[in-house]
Design goal:
This protein is 31% helix and 45% strand. The protein has helices at residues 2-16, 45-51, and strands spanning 21-29, 35-43, 55-59, 62-70.
């Protein structure tokens, strides 16, 4: 019985473990023809998504929008 309980506990813990792998973030900015690509090695999808955010910035009255997608 103790072995079965131990097995169930280990299996449950493994199912809650986050899958860490390399994630790539591609960002393009209005007015630019190239994309900036950033790689987040061995990270969870949630952490990579938090670092790969779209933003809006204003320089000298011109609004630049950066759009990012997590691949």
């Amino acid at each position: 019985m103790k072995k079965v309980l131990l097995f169930v506990a280990v299996a449950t813990a493994a199912s809650f473990a986050s899958c860490k792998k390399d994630h790539t973030c591609s960002c393009t900015t209005t007015g630019s023809t190239t994309a900036d690509v950033t790689t987040y090695p061995k990270s969870t999808k949630a952490a990579a998504r938090a670092n790969c955010l779209s933003s809006t910035q204003t320089y000298a009255g011109t609004v630049y929008t950066t759009t990012c997608t997590l691949n």
